Amino acid sequence: MTENNDHKAPVVRPMRLWFCAIFLLIMVADQVTKQIMLELIFDPPRRIEILAILNLVPVWNRGMSFGMLAGGGVLVPIGLTSLAVAVSAWLFWMVPRLYRVQRLAAACIAGGAIGNAIDRLRFGKVVDFIDLHYAGLHWPAFNLADAAITIGAVLWGYSILREQETSRI
Predict the structure, then answer these.
(1) Domains in the chain: how many in total?
(2) CA–CA separation, 140 and 54 (whole Å)
(3) What pLDDT score was predicted for residue 44?
(4) Do the domain assignments include residue 1?
């Protein structure tokens, strides 16, 4: 005997539409800012100081976050792009089973992952340009996609901790 799931469809559709809206907003904002930076600081290469702790700098990242796997050859961009697509598809599929904060986190992670995957398909590397620094110490250069992935991971962790706290009550 099969169960009738028609009542779930009206609830799932808005969740997935909301996910797609956030996902697209992040992905488009990431690609637009990268295109602006390509024209502004990559050709010719230059550094622009915005604040005492913030510069715009041209950095090509062949690896993943913080340059990890940068020397991995041609298979790294292919593998990372495939992973980004697979994880994003899985997150989209999982939307109905996620808590509200996790849905926002998932959209941030997926939007950022696909934003960087687009760079890997276009250039074989990722466009990074945000340089945060203090007292001569520099955080590795990053972009809006990286920031969205990080924010998504923090939100996901928060939602897990919050759920553990509320389930104890």
Answers:
(1) 1
(2) 12
(3) 94
(4) no
pLDDT at 57: 98
The answer to whether 155 and 104 have CB atoms below 8 angstroms apart is: yes
For tokens 């340089």, name the residue.
Answer: 131
- 3 domain residue, yes or no: no
CA distances (Å), origin 117, targets 20, 121, 168? 17, 6, 40
pLDDT digits (tens, 9 = 90+) for 146-167: 999 999 999 999 999 987 555 5
Whole-angstrom distance, CA of residue 43 vs CA of residue 102: 39
Active site positions, annotated = 128, 146
Q: Classify residue 2: in a domain, yes or no.
A: no
What spatial distance separates the first Cα and last Cα of the chain, rounded to whole Å?
37
Nearest Cα neighbor of 49 from 130, 127, 128 is 130
Would 37 be classed as within a structural domain? yes
Over residues 3-56, the pLDDT tens digits come to 455 555 666 788 999 999 999 999 999 999 999 999 999 999 999 999 999 999
Q: Give Cα separations from 24 to 94, 97, 98 (angstroms).
A: 17, 21, 19
| H-helix or E-strand spanning residue 128 | strand 126-134
> For residues 73 and 41, which has the higher predicted lDDT (pLDDT)?
41
